[in-house]
Design brief:
Elements: H1 21-24, H2 68-71, H3 87-96, H4 112-120, E1 123-125, E2 128-130, E3 133-136, E4 139-142, E5 162-164, E6 172-178, E7 186-191, E8 197-202, E9 210-213, E10 219-227, E11 234-242, E12 245-253, E13 272-277, E14 279-285, E15 297-303, E16 306-312, E17 320-323, E18 336-339, E19 345-351, E20 356-362, E21 373-377, E22 383-384, E23 394-395, E24 399-402, E25 413-420, E26 433-440, E27 448-450, E28 463-470, E29 476-482, E30 493-499, E31 510-511, E32 531-535, E33 538-545, E34 558-564, E35 575-577, E36 589-592, E37 598-601, E38 612-618, E39 627-631, E40 637-640, E41 647-653, E42 659-662
Antiparallel strand pairs: 1-2, 3-4, 5-34, 6-7, 7-8, 8-9, 10-11, 11-12, 12-13, 14-15, 15-16, 16-17, 18-19, 19-20, 20-21, 22-23, 24-25, 25-26, 26-27, 28-29, 29-30, 30-31, 32-33, 33-34, 35-36, 36-37, 37-40, 38-39, 38-41, 41-42
Length: 687
C-alpha cells in the first residue's frame, strides 16, 4: 500500500474544531457496527476533536496527524462538500491546488476519490485498508467488512444481449465509440478494474471485448473515446494524476484500439500528449463531412472549476488551450461539446454556483467564442444524493449531441442532464431525480426544455446519468438509470427512449438491462456517467452494473455494454415502422402519420371478402381483454389514434373464430400479446 507523505501532504482538519471538554469526551465510531472507536489520545493536537472529522469524509487514521494549523485551511462550508475523501486529503488538496484555497464557492474535483484511492490505498483503520464507505445524513461510515485484498473475483459473461466489458470486477465510469466506417469495430474505456484507466476493443460489434493498457502507465480515470471521420484513428483521453494534481493525457491508436502508440510516429518513444492540468475532460471530434473544421478534436474540461478548451487540428499531434470565464456564476464542471453540419461549436456546461446550464458557441473552429448565455436553470447544484447514489451522489453533468442528417431537424442540438425535481436536501430519501432534455432547432437562439420520460411517478422513481446520441435519420436516442423496479429506489436498470420529432415527444422508455443492479455500499457507486454511441443503425450503450455474476450476494461492480434495437424516425414526419409478416409473407406495415396517428395495414387472409376487427391492448398485461377499436368491413387497413403507454394491436378475422395478432406497440416495438416477448407475429390462418 502507499504510505502517507508527511508535512505538507500529511493531514487535514477544521479551524473550528477547538472543543469543550464535554465534546471531547464523546465517543465517535468509525463504522456503523460501532466496532472501532476514534481515539483522541492518538491525535497530534489535544484541542482537535478528531471524531468531528467524520462530518467531512470517511475516517482515516492519517487524520490523527491533524493540527489546528491544518484545520485552518479548510473552507467554512466544508461539511456541505459531500465527497467521500477523508479530512487529511482535503487539507492536502486545499494546500496544493491554488484555485481551491479556503474558498467556499468552489468544489473538489471529481477525480479526488480516484486519486485518493490510487495514491493512498483506501481508508486506513488500525493498519488495514478499506475501499468502501457510505454516508448517512450528516456523516460518513467506513465499511470494515471487506478489507482490501490483492486481486479481484472474476465473473461469468452476461447473456440476453448484454456483454460484460471489464474483468475482474471493480470498474465504473465508461465511454464507447463505434467506428464510423466499420461498425464491427468498437472502442471503449473504463475507470478500472484494479485502478487506472483500462481500454477495450471489439471486432465483432460488441459481442466480445479485449482489454488493453495505455502506454507509460500512471493513468487515473475519466475515460473518453472517439474516432476520426475515416475510422483510421481512434482517440482517448484520460487523467494522469500525481498525488493531488491531474493532467489531461491524450492518446491515439492507429490499429483500432489494439495499441495506443500512434503518436510515436511524430515523437518516437512518446505516445501521449500532456494537454493541461484538468478534471472531468470530455472528447469530441467534428464528424460532419460538410464542416470546414472536419476532424478537429476538441476537449472540454475545467481547472479549478474554470471551464477550458483544448483543440487539435492535426489528428491529435498538437493542442492549443483556451481558458474561459472565472466569474463565480460561470464556474462549472462536467461539460460537453456538440458541432453541427457547418462545424459550429456548442460548448455547454452546468454552472453550479448559479444553478444554470450555460452555453458558448464558436463559428471559427474554436478560435473565438460568443458571450455566455443561459439555457436553463437547475434545482441542484453540482450533485445531490438519492437512495441509489447516497454516497457518490448524482452529478449534474451535460451530454450533448447534434443532428448531422439532412432531415427536418437537421443541425438541431440536444442536451440532457439529471436534476433534482425540487431543490435537494442532504437526505437521499427526500430527494427525487429526473432527466431533463433541452433542444434548439434554430441554432441556439431559442431552447425548449422537456422531460423525456413519465412524470407521474417522479416521487417513486429516480432517473439519472443520461447520455444522448443522434442517428443518421435524425432520431434522438437516450439512455439513463431508472429505479422503477426497485421499491426503495436503491436498485436500478438502464432504460432507453427515443424521439422522432426533434425531442418534442418521446417513446415509452424500455428496459435494456436483463437484471436489476443493486445498490452497492461504496463511495464510488455508479461513478458519474455512462456512454452511448450510434453509427448507421448500430446503437451501443455502456454503463456501470452491480449485478453479482456468481449468483451470490457479493458485490460486483463492472462495466457492461448492450446493443439496442433503435427506434427509427419517419421521413418528413411520417413513415413506416418495422413490422412483422403475415402468413403470406407480405410485410406488415404500421405507419406513423404526420399528424401522430398510426396506420395499420395487413394482407388478405383466407381470400378476399373477410371482415376484420381491430383490438388494442396495453402492455405489459396482455391478458387484460383488449378494447375493440373498429370493424373494417373487409378493408385491410385501419387508422388508429395511439393512447399513452406501450400498446399492441390484434387483428381478428371475423366469422371464423380465428384470431391473430400483429404484435406491435405504438412505438414500433414488436410484441406477442400472449407472451409479452419481442417476436414477429402473423395473422392466424382460417380453418
Amino acid at each position: 500500500m502507499k504510505t502517507m507523505m508527511r508535512t505538507s501532504i500529511g493531514v487535514a482538519g477544521l479551524c473550528c474544531a477547538l472543543l469543550s471538554p464535554l465534546a471531547l469526551a464523546q465517543t465517535v465510531f468509525v463504522d456503523r457496527a460501532h466496532s472501532v472507536a476514534i481515539d483522541p489520545s492518538r491525535g497530534a493536537d489535544s484541542l482537535v476533536d478528531y471524531g468531528a472529522l467524520v462530518r467531512f469524509g470517511p475516517w482515516d487514521d492519517r487524520n490523527y496527524e491533524l493540527t489546528r494549523g491544518d484545520l485552518a485551511v479548510l473552507a467554512a462550508n466544508e461539511a456541505e462538500l459531500r465527497v467521500p475523501i477523508p479530512a487529511f486529503f482535503r487539507v492536502e488538496l486545499r494546500r496544493s491546488i491554488e484555485s481551491l484555497g479556503r474558498r467556499s464557492d468552489v468544489r473538489y474535483p471529481l477525480y479526488a476519490l480516484n486519486v485518493f484511492r490510487q495514491n493512498f490505498g483506501g481508508y486506513l483503520v488500525d493498519g488495514v485498508y478499506y475501499r468502501e464507505a457510505t454516508r448517512d445524513r450528516d456523516r460518513y461510515y467506513v465499511d470494515l467488512s471487506e478489507p482490501v485484498a490483492a486481486g479481484a473475483r472474476a465473473g461469468s459473461e452476461a447473456a440476453l444481449g448484454e456483454s460484460r466489458v471489464t474483468s475482474p470486477e471493480g470498474a465504473a465510469e465508461s465511454a464507447i465509440a463505434i467506428n464510423p466506417v466499420d461498425t464491427t469495430r468498437i472502442i471503449a474505456g473504463s475507470n478500472g478494474p484494479n485502478g487506472g484507466q483500462r481500454m477495450h476493443y471489439s471486432t465483432d460489434g460488441g459481442a466480445s471485448w479485449t482489454q488493453t493498457e495505455l502506454p507509460l502507465g500512471g493513468t487515473c480515470c475519466d475515460p473518453s473515446v472517439e474516432w476520426s471521420t475515416d475510422g483510421q484513428y481512434a482517440y482517448t483521453t484520460t487523467l494522469g494524476c500525481f498525488i493531488v494534481f491531474c493532467d489531461v493525457w491524450f492518446y491515439r491508436s492507429d490499429d483500432g484500439g489494439v495499441s495506443w502508440t500512434g503518436l510515436e510516429t511524430f515523437t518516437p518513444g512518446d505516445p501521449r500528449r500532456e494537454v493541461d492540468s484538468a478534471d472531468r475532460e470530455f472528447l469530441h471530434v467534428d464528424l460532419s463531412p460538410t464542416s470546414p473544421y472536419k476532424d478537429n478534436i476538441y476537449i472540454t474540461y475545467h481547472n479549478g472549476n474554470v471551464m477550458r478548451l483544448a483543440r487539435s487540428t492535426d489528428f491529435g499531434n498538437t493542442f492549443t488551450t483556451k481558458k474561459f470565464s472565472s466569474a463565480s456564476e460561470d464556474m462549472g464542471i462536467a461539460g460537453d461539446i456538440a458541432t453541427d453540419r457547418a462545424g459550429k461549436i456548442y460548448y455547454v456546461w452546468p454552472a453550479f454556483n448559479s444553478r444554470t446550464i450555460r452555453l458558448m458557441t464558436s463559428t471559427d473552429g474554436g478560435a473565438t467564442f460568443s458571450a455566455i448565455s443561459v439555457i436553463a436553470d437547475t434545482n441542484a447544484s453540482f450533485s445531490y444524493p438519492i437512495p441509489a447514489m447516497e454516497s457518490r451522489e448524482v452529478a449534474v453533468y451535460v451530454s450533448a449531441a447534434a443532428d448531422l442528417s439532412d432531415g427536418p431537424y437537421a443541425d438541431s442540438i440536444y442536451l440532457s442532464w439529471a436534476d433534482a425535481t425540487t431543490p435537494p436536501s442532504g437526505d437521499p430519501a427526500s430527494n427525487h431525480s429526473h432527466i431533463q432534455v433541452a433542444y434548439t432547432h434554430d441554432g441556439g437562439a431559442n431552447w425548449t426544455l422537456v422531460t423525456p420520460h413519465e412524470t407521474a411517478d417522479e416521487l417513486t422513481v429516480d432517473r439519472w446519468q443520461s447520455f444522448l446520441a443522434v442517428g443518421n435519420d435524425g432520431t434522438v436516442h437516450l439512455i439513463f438509470h431508472d429505479t422503477r423496479r426497485s421499491a426503495d429506489r436503491s436498485g436500478s436498470d438502464i432504460f432507453y427512449t427515443y424521439s422522432t420529432d426533434g425531442a418534442q415527444s418521446w417513446s415509452s422508455p424500455s428496459r435494456v438491462t436483463a437484471e436489476m443492479s443493486p445498490n452497492i455500499a461504496d463511495g464510488f457507486e455508479y461513478g458519474d456517467y455512462n456512454g452511448l454511441s450510434m453509427v448507421m443503425n448500430d446503437l451501443m450503450a455502456i454503463y456501470t452494473d452491480n449485478r453479482s455474476e456468481s449468483g451470490g450476494g457479493g458485490d460486483s461492480i463492472d462495466v457492461y455494454s448492450a446493443g439496442i434495437e433503435p427506434g427509427t424516425a419517419p421521413a418528413s414526419g411520417a413513415g413506416r415502422i418495422p413490422g412483422a409478416k403475415d402468413v403470406s409473407g407480405t410485410p406488415l406495415t404500421l405507419t406513423r402519420l404526420a399528424g401522430g396517428d398510426l396506420q395499420l395495414d395487413w394482407s388478405t387472409v383466407c381470400g378476399a371478402g373477410n371482415d376484420y376487427a381491430v383490438y388494442e391492448g396495453l402492455l405489459p398485461d396482455p391478458e387484460s381483454k383488449q378494447q375493440r377499436l373498429c370493424s373494417t368491413g373487409g378493408a385491410t387497413t385501419a387508422t388508429l389514434t395511439p393512447a399513452s403507454g406501450q400498446r399492441f394491436y390484434l387483428v381478428v378475422a371475423q366469422g371464423d373464430g380465428a384470431e391473430g395478432s400483429y404484435g406491435q406497440t405504438s412505438d414500433g416495438t414488436e410484441r406477442n400479446p400472449a407472451t409479452d416477448a419481442c417476436l414477429p407475429q402473423t395473422i392466424a390462418s382460417c380453418p
